[in-house]
Write a structure and sequence with these properties.
Number of domains: 1
Radius of gyration: 15 Å
Shape: globular
Structural class: alpha+beta
Distance between the termini: 42 Å
Oligomer: single chain
CATH class: Alpha Beta
Number of helices: 2
Strand content: over 45%
Length: 134
């Protein structure tokens, strides 16, 4: 079960990278549901309205503790991801940068007919500050 959940979480991060890079929130539907899906779509729309996309690199992924409900329909996983991101305009010019930073968080998942879906994420550190490109 641990390996299955880890693969779901890594896939979710990769789909999020692709969704933000292509300004396509539909890609988030592969792994997210409910208010978390709506929030992700709204964030992508805000980027689109600014005329930028986000190019991110997931530099590290560590899975910590995993808890699964007795009936196997819900799970919670502690993860730490390390990200670096650039905001890029339509000309490919960097207009903002998020420095390499760790993002410890807890993901909450539910098993559906389509497999495990993430319905909430609780972040345990503030989001990094947007910095000038270098």
């Amino acid at each position: 079960m641990r390996n299955e959940l880890q693969q779901v979480l890594v896939n979710a991060s990769n789909n999020e990278i692709q969704a933000r890079q292509t300004a396509n929130p539909l890609l988030l539907q592969r792994n997210y549901t409910g208010p978390l899906l709506a929030l992700g779509a709204a964030e992508i729309e805000a980027l689109r309205q600014r005329g930028v996309v986000m190019l991110s690199t997931l530099k590290d992924f560590r899975l910590g503790g995993v808890l699964v409900s007795r009936d196997g329909t819900r799970a919670q996983a502690d993860i730490t991801e390390r990200w670096e991101s650039n905001l890029v305009n339509g000309l490919g010019v960097c207009v903002g940068h998020f420095h390499d930073s760790e993002a410890p968080q807890t993901a909450f998942l539910q098993r559906t007919a389509n497999g495990w879906m993430i319905y909430d994420i609780k972040r345990h550190s503030p989001d990094p500050e947007l910095a000038p490109c270098h």
